[in-house]
Structure formats: structure tokens, C-alpha cells
TrEMBL record, chains A, B:
<dbReference type="GO" id="GO:0003700">
    <property type="term" value="F:DNA-binding transcription factor activity"/>
</dbReference>
<dbReference type="InterPro" id="IPR028082">
    <property type="entry name" value="Peripla_BP_I"/>
</dbReference>
<dbReference type="Pfam" id="PF13377">
    <property type="entry name" value="Peripla_BP_3"/>
</dbReference>
<dbReference type="GO" id="GO:0000976">
    <property type="term" value="F:transcription cis-regulatory region binding"/>
</dbReference>
<dbReference type="InterPro" id="IPR000843">
    <property type="entry name" value="HTH_LacI"/>
</dbReference>
<dbReference type="InterPro" id="IPR046335">
    <property type="entry name" value="LacI/GalR-like_sensor"/>
</dbReference>
<keyword id="KW-0804">Transcription</keyword>
<protein>
    <submittedName>
        <fullName>LacI family transcriptional regulator</fullName>
    </submittedName>
</protein>
<dbReference type="Pfam" id="PF00356">
    <property type="entry name" value="LacI"/>
</dbReference>
<dbReference type="InterPro" id="IPR010982">
    <property type="entry name" value="Lambda_DNA-bd_dom_sf"/>
</dbReference>
<feature type="domain" description="HTH lacI-type">
    <location>
        <begin position="10"/>
        <end position="63"/>
    </location>
</feature>
<keyword id="KW-0238">DNA-binding</keyword>
<keyword id="KW-0805">Transcription regulation</keyword>
Length: 352, 352
DNA sequence: TTGTATGCGTTATCAC
DNA sequence: GTGATAACGCATACAA
């Protein structure tokens, strides 16, 4: 195969000419429709010689299907979304769909843009995971002419499939676990309360304490942001205010890693002095030392479920919107149970 | 905005009818071409009422541009590729391109498929990062009618822009560092030698020792695979064979994490007894404890450079193929220098 | 079985 | 300035 000179590629017209048949015959052969042996031979030979490849755009215009699906994540830097992505990709690929990625940086306008752009029909469906769901989201969702699966919570009645985590139960699992270990001064290190996860996890913490009969203490709640450095700063403040805290319920793994840094720097042992729990069970939880007990909210499962739901819609299923809730799971590691197995090998991790 | 009944969306024909003008006028207005005030008003009103959105497929067929770019990574589970992705995405987005993701699982046939599928013209360009470059790659690359940027090494004369890491210098930096710390029994824990990185890093290790005047000792080289569990297994074997090793040069971060696990389990202190260096400087390196000294091969920079190179091509630049080499950088953390700053906050990490 | 002709939704080139 | 009309590349209903 010598270096093909750039320029316009061959079309079915080129082939038709070369093979001495009509474009209809070319199309038929290429689509496996019944044709005479000789015609088929000529067409395939011409196609081969010319290095013909079907133009996906023209084909989409005709068929009204692009074989593309979009995934809109709030933040491409967030390992939790990447975990979803890792599951979504192979499912779609196996079904013959390409994946178009959008990172909206949790900007509402960007998310609305993505929904609006569905009208451009460059994808057959969308999976989206918004950080918060506004009225604008719901309007655009209602107007969408393309199947959409939302990872996160949407109000009942929304015309979109919905895959949810259950962070309420998740926090409960964690707090119960800490309580069972004998911890009684369990603090909460949360992210901003105006985000969906922040609000949900904060409320769940309060509920969990209540059910355990533990008093709720404002001093034990520290708001920061969902990043490692912010988490560290928040925990430093917390320790200054409440030195005798014996457990930290962190609203995500990054915060928890920041917590480990600060606890270590302050000379506290984990978990002996302070037990730490994160959320999302990202790769980082298994990598840290001590390895981090974390509440898995099923990022991977949610991604997979969303992809499968969407595929069903793409196959023509137009039944009522579905709701899938993925149960949380507490993954106990060293940060709450020092002498238990670390379990760093229980997750698939990429190589090279 | 009431729930729009599903069905075919409006086209410029619908608008033309509604506005009482021709489709040509509609197109003009929509494209900002000079039109009478009144026409413009009618068209825009109709478009607004109908909730019109341009059909991207039809537009692409006509314009021969899809405003999509593909990124083909060897393994979506690998943090190093995700680091590239995180840089590529915003660059393309800012330039108005969508990102189509392919994970080829390092299967050569899949990679060739991706190259071949460029002929379908569903993307305007491609960034790919193959684990190895075969003749089949080069042939498909030569036949490509679309700009391609390869992250990795391609032979001179290949008609594709090329962004390279310099793992040779990278290994050298690491080995020099270990040597400077007084280590003399420096082992290499590598991945398979039939991969490009495996081969390059293995050779570089040998070279580095030579330049330092250290003897090369087969016993100090252990081949495993580029995963954490494999790395752990390899290091266990190594320790059994060479108990007095005082430094480990690991071919990537995952291997290094596995090494930390095993060293810890064997009662060795890091870095006091054994210093450990990883490669790729992934997020995991900063998260682990002790935090991991790692050679950054500039995954992020390479991704960014690749995206920018591709954008230049998409803007029409058809000059000779470019070669960009990103210099490696040693990021010293606790696994080789116990009392230095951990620096866990020097990298941007995702939140929530 | 095969060819002719039409449409998918846009953009662009003409005359008017 | 505006309206017919012809592509873009493919699939297909219909006629032959």
C-alpha cells in the first residue's frame, strides 16, 4: 500500500463507474442484499482496489442513526466519574456505539448546552451525571428528542431513565461501622451544602447519629470542599476545635486523603486514635496508606447500568421511565480496622 | 415549555413554511448572511417557536467537517492515559470540537480498526497512543486521509505528528537520584519486554547503571507486568533472591505501589531500607503512603501538546510532520526522601 | 437482478 | 435581497 495521495476519497459513485454498474448495485452489494455473483465480484474488487470506506455521515443522514452516544460528566478530573466512564465505554463499544465525551465542569449552562445540542442529532442518546438538577435541566430534558439516562436523582415524572446512588444509606453504613468500633465522637467533613451530594450526605449524617442515639453536635461538622487540600484544611480546623474527635466521616475520598495527611502530621495514629472513612471508593482509597475504608456508591455499577438502560432505549424500548437504585457498600480497609487485610488487589486497575 | 411530543424535529423546511420564505432565506438568516430586517425577524421567530436546532449530520455532510476528534487510548483503566484525556478534552472543547473516545485495550487489530475507520469521516482528526507500533499501524497511518497525531514513537518519515516521552532520560534521572542517595544495589522491576515502554525502560536502566559505573546484574532485574498485583509478586520474588537490595526502580507507578505493599509486609522501611521510584507520576503516586517518588513522563503535557498539534492541522497547516519530545521530570516524594515535603497538594485533583 | 430517481437536511450557486 | 435548484454520499421504492 503506497502512500495514498490525499484528496477526496472514493464514493459509491467512484466504485460504480469502475465496476461498470449502478450506484444502487454498489449499495446493495455493500449491504449484503441479494445480487448476481458477477456483480458482487466486480463491486467488491473495485471497492478493494480503491480502498473504499463508507461515509458514516452520509449514512447517518439517511438512516437517522449516528451510532454515537454521549456521556456528559460534571468533572473529568474526578475519579468517580472516570470509574463510570470505564464501565460505560466497553458496554457501548460492544453494542457498536462510539462514545462522545463531554466535561461540563459542573457548570449548569454547559449541561443545558449538552442537552440542547441533542437536537443537533449527532448522537443517538445521552448519559449525563449532573452535580445538581435545576428547572432548566428538567425543561431541556422534557424537550429532548433523544433518549437520556440521568445518573443522579431526578424528580418523579421526568421523562428520563434514572440511575441513583443511595448516599443516605451509604453514610448510615459508615457511621454504623464507626459506632460499632466504639467511636462516639464521630465528625463529618463535608463539601458545600448547595451541591446535591453535599446536602444529601450532610442530612444523612445527622439522621444516622439520631438513629444511633448519638447527640448531634455542630462542632463536629466541618464544611470544606470536595478536594484533598480543602479536606486537609477543614480537618485541621476541626482538630483545633475538637481535639478529642475519634472518627471522621468524610464526604468523599479526596477529603479523606486530606484528612489522613493532617492526622499524620498532627501525630495521631489512624485508626488507633482516629478512624477515617471516605466515600466513592475510588482507586485512591485502595492506594493510600493506611488504605482507606470507603463507602462505595457503586460508580462503576451506576455507569454500567446507565449504559445498559440507554442501549435498551436505543433498541426501541419506549416503556415508562425506569429507576435503578444502586445499593452502597462499605469497603472496610485499614483506616478503620488496622489489622484487617488491606485488600489492595480486589479492584481491577489499569497497567503500564 | 410543555412536554414536546416526540417525533421528527423541525427542519429549515418547516421554518420556511411557517415564516413564508424560502429555505435559502432561512439558511441565510441562520448563518448570519445579509438579509432584510423583516425576513430575519420572521425566520428567527419561527425558529424560536419551533425550537429549531441545526442538524449536525446534514451540516457535516455538506461542509465535510464534523467538528469531532477521536482519541484512541490503549487502556481506559490506565491513569496515565486518563491524565492525557484530562488535558486533551478542554483544549478540543475550547476550539469547538467534540471528543470521541476509543479504548483499544492495546489490541493491535482494534487500533488498526480505529485508523481504518477514519475513512468513515466521522471525525476530523485523531490522537492515538498505541502501546506498540507495528507495520500494520504504519500502513494504515500512511493511508489515512485525516490528520493523525501519535503519542508514542513512530519511525522517521511517518506522515503523522508525533509526541514522545523520553523514558530513557526519565529512567536515568531516577537511577541517578538513587545513586546520589548512596544506593548501590538498585533493582529494576519492569513490565513485559515486548512492549515499547518495557523495552525502552529496561534498556535505559542498563545504560544508566553503565554510566554510573555500576555493574549490571541480571539478578537485580525482575520482569512482571504493569499492574499493582503483578508488581507486588515480582518484588516478592526479587526480595527472595536478593534480600539486600536497597532501591527499586519500578517501570510504572502501579508496580511501585505493589512494591510498597510487599516491602511493608516484609518489615522493610521505605525509604530507609529500600528506596522506591515509580514512573508516570500518576495521581496514585501522590496519594500513596509513603508518597511515591516518580518520574513524570509528562502524560498531561503530551496530551496537551498532541491536542494542540492536531488543532493546527485542523486549521489547515499542512507543513512537514512535527516531532515534539516532552522532557521527563523527577518528582521527589517520601519514598526516596523520607523527611522531605510530601507535596500532595502540588497537583490538581478532581473533586466530589 | 438491476438501474433510475428521490430524499435525508444543509449549504451554496445561480438567476431573478 | 430572495427563491429555485443543485450538490454532499448513501439507501431505497419503484420500474424495468
Amino acid at each position: 500500500m503506497e502512500g495514498t495521495p490525499l484528496g477526496d476519497g472514493p464514493t459509491i459513485n467512484t466504485i460504480a463507474e469502475r465496476a461498470g454498474v449502478s450506484i444502487a448495485s454498489v449499495s446493495r452489494v455493500l449491504n449484503g442484499l441479494p445480487t448476481r455473483r458477477e456483480t458482487e465480484r466486480k463491486v467488491l474488487a473495485a471497492a478493494e482496489e480503491l480502498g473504499y470506506v463508507r461515509n458514516a455521515v452520509a449514512r447517518s443522514l439517511k438512516s437517522r442513526r449516528t451510532h454515537q452516544v454521549a456521556f456528559a460528566m460534571a468533572d473529568i478530573g474526578n475519579p468517580a466519574y472516570l470509574a463510570m466512564l470505564r464501565e460505560i465505554q466497553p458496554v457501548l463499544k460492544a453494542a457498536g456505539y462510539r462514545l462522545v465525551l463531554h466535561s461540563t465542569d459542573a457548570v449548569v449552562a454547559d449541561e443545558i448546552d449538552v442537552l440542547h445540542s441533542l437536537g443537533e442529532r449527532y448522537v443517538d442518546g445521552l448519559i449525563m451525571s449532573p452535580l445538581r438538577v435545576t428547572d432548566a435541566h428538567l425543561e431541556s430534558l422534557a424537550a429532548a428528542r433523544t433518549p437520556v439516562v440521568v445518573i443522579g436523582s431526578v424528580p418523579e415524572g421526568t421523562r428520563a431513565d434514572n440511575v441513583r446512588a443511595d448516599s443516605r444509606t451509604g453514610v448510615r453504613l459508615a457511621v454504623d461501622h464507626l459506632h460499632a468500633l466504639g467511636r462516639r465522637r464521630i465528625a463529618m467533613v463535608n463539601g458545600p451544602l448547595d451541591t446535591v451530594p453535599g446536602a444529601a450526605r450532610g442530612a444523612a449524617y445527622r439522621e444516622a447519629l439520631e438513629e444511633l442515639g448519638l447527640p448531634y453536635d455542630d462542632d463536629l461538622v466541618q464544611i470544606g470542599d470536595f478536594y484533598r487540600a480543602e479536606g486537609a484544611r477543614a480537618v485541621a480546623e476541626l482538630l483545633a476545635r475538637v481535639p478529642d474527635v475519634d472518627a471522621l466521616m468524610c464526604a468523599n475520598d479526596l477529603i479523606a486523603l486530606g484528612a489522613l495527611d493532617v492526622l499524620r502530621a498532627s501525630g495521631r495514629r489512624v485508626p488507633d486514635d482516629v478512624a477515617v472513612v471516605g466515600m466513592d471508593d475510588t482507586d485512591l482509597a485502595a492506594a493510600s496508606w493506611p488504605s482507606l475504608t470507603s463507602v462505595s456508591l457503586g460508580s462503576a455499577e451506576r455507569g454500567k447500568a446507565a449504559a445498559e438502560l440507554l442501549l435498551q432505549r436505543l433498541r426501541g424500548d419506549d416503556s415508562a421511565p425506569r429507576l435503578v437504585t444502586v445499593p452502597p457498600r462499605l469497603v472496610v480497609r485499614a483506616s478503620t480496622a488496622g489489622n484487617r487485610a488491606d485488600g489492595p488487589y480486589d479492584r481491577k486497575e489499569g497497567g503500564v
